[in-house]
TrEMBL record:
This is Tocopherol cyclase. SUPFAM superfamilies: AttH-like (SSF159245). The keyword Ubl conjugation does not apply. The keyword Phosphoprotein does not apply. Keywords: Signal. Residues 1-20 form the signal peptide. PANTHER family: PTHR35309, TOCOPHEROL CYCLASE (PTHR35309:SF4). The gene is VTE1.
């Protein structure tokens, strides 16, 4: 079941705001005089009603305008835990990548109501997800999978969230060194432990079928997703402005299996996955393909210890007024 969002009347996080700040939760375009976009994607899943609601807010090409978007927070299961940049600490370096990407909240609990065409749907502690993109341009092609509401038959853990995405993005956009690369990341939270999979392979159809696998420190993960409906259009930044450029469903059937060697650690399935493809699929099925981030950039970008040290240093420098990185 799918609903068109008319009014998001009340949404309240179920616990106090966490003292740990999520990286890149602010607005990155302050003072920008070049083409720029920033968009926030929020998804609310209502398993009992077998429906989802998505709210997308975007700022597109503000130019010299003084857009004001204030930072917001949410409740985290471990309020003292360090929050990481989804694309690694290099996401702080402005135009290096385009676009940038940050998961703001993989699993929140929301209470409130949604009103659509006069019909009110109330919810309490419903699964909530939030992410954002920003930069000079959207990818030329991408796929995306997300779910934080799995079937009760979840094996190997009590709580699981999944976000996986792959894209053809620009590196050093707008410079003489501008080039494109295929990149991807699978992010799992298993009972609160974050597992990033930077080694990703995929075969994705223009619509309806996603086959994705990843490897990380002796772990492997396999994801299979399908969509039986036609999906709904999603507006994205284009050279001509915001326009329908992607297709998305909230009713995707998805299975995920996490293994170490021959041992299955986690197995889960859902019929409430969000599945998306976008951009240029004129050549048909994308794949088999793999993330192309080159060394040493790849190792540097996904070194969590280095990310922790660099991010802490940048935070301290901003507090002391030594530098200002918009949105960090």
């Amino acid at each position: 079941m799918r609903r068109t969002l008319a009014t998001l009347a009340l949404l309240r996080m179920a616990a106090p705001l966490a003292p740990s700040r999520t990286p890149h939760s602010g607005y990155h375009g302050q003072g920008s005089s070049t083409p720029f976009f920033e968009g926030w994607y929020n998804r609310l899943t209502l398993p009992e009603a077998e429906t989802s609601v998505a709210l997308i807010f975007a700022v597109f090409d503000p130019g010299a305008a003084h857009a004001a978007v204030r930072r917001w927070g949410g409740a985290f299961a471990n309020a003292s835990a360090r929050q990481y940049s989804t694309a690694g600490w290099l996401a702080s370096l402005g135009p290096l990548f385009s676009p940038h990407y940050q998961v703001l909240m993989s699993l929140g609990r929301a209470t409130g109501f949604v009103e659509v065409d006069g019909e009110r749907l109330s919810f309490a502690r419903a699964p909530f997800y939030a992410e954002k993109n920003w930069g000079a341009a959207f990818p030329s092609r991408w796929w995306w999978l997300q779910c934080n509401a799995f079937e009760a038959s979840l094996e190997g853990c009590s709580e699981l969230t999944l976000t996986a995405t792959g894209a053809t993005r620009q590196l050093l956009a707008g410079t003489r060194l501008d080039r494109s690369e295929d990149v991807a990341l699978i992010g799992l939270h298993v009972d609160g432990e974050f597992l990033p999979f930077p080694d990703v392979r995929w075969t994705v159809a223009p619509w309806g079928d996603w086959r994705v696998s990843g490897a990380y420190e002796g772990l492997t993960v396999d994801i299979a997703a399908t969509a039986s409906d036609a999906g709904v259009p999603v507006r994205v930044p284009t050279d001509a402005g915001m326009a329908d450029g992607a297709t998305e469903t909230y009713d995707g059937r998805l299975s995920v299996e996490l293994r170490r060697g021959g041992d299955v650690l986690v197995a889960a399935s859902t019929h409430l996955a969000c599945c998306e493809t976008g951009g240029d699929y004129a050549s048909g099925v994308w794949g088999p393909a793999a993330s192309e981030m080159a060394e040493p950039l790849r190792t540097v970008a996904f070194n969590l210890d280095l990310e922790r040290a660099v991010s802490a240093g940048l935070d301290a420098a901003q507090r002391r007024g030594w530098l200002e990185i918009p949105g960090l």
